[in-house]
Amino acid sequence: MERLAKALRAEKLPLVVTREPGGTATGEKIRQLLLDTSTVALAPFAELALMFGSRAQHIKEVIQPALAEGRIVLCDRFTDSTEAYQGGGRKLGSEAVLTLHRVLCGDLQPDLTILMDSDVAISVERARRRNKANSRGSDENRFEQESRAFFGRVRNAYLAIAEREPKRVAVVDARGTPDATHQHIMRVIRQKMKLAA
Fold first, then answer.
1. How far apart are CA 178 and CA 118, in angstroms?
2. Of 9, 20, 128, 140, which is most buried by a Cβ count within 10 Å?
3. Considering the entire predicted model, what is its pTM?
């Protein structure tokens, strides 16, 4: 995300970089609750509701104002992640997620979603290392403690979304080096935004 933002800023493009859950003061509090390993026995539908609570606030405070100003919004995760994690991983299905998205998010859709696909075990290990390195006293490992089967369902849900919406979702093979993955992402972005190579 940081590399992509740097590359787009070098093109002098107006940019807002944000994340979910989070992105606002309220959203960051929800993020802490959702991702902290001490949050135990959270009902799947409660988790889903919290994700959308954070997202609705994020859209109102950050995303809509940025879009109204003509800025590009780079968001680390959005409703596709909820459909994959809560719909697929938690087995709530897509219907509840997509219904809440229509009601609470006004069906706002990204112009482009980059799905970085790789081996489940490698992805989880990478996330654990990243969370440990970036912890700054916070604990964001609740999801990383899930089973391999959970992450298999998450990956399958992401791939189903990409198959359902191939014009919006670009699948990038993230099994290579960070440089190779970044170059692939930049090719997708340049094509989508019609930027010169």
1. 12
2. 20
3. 0.90
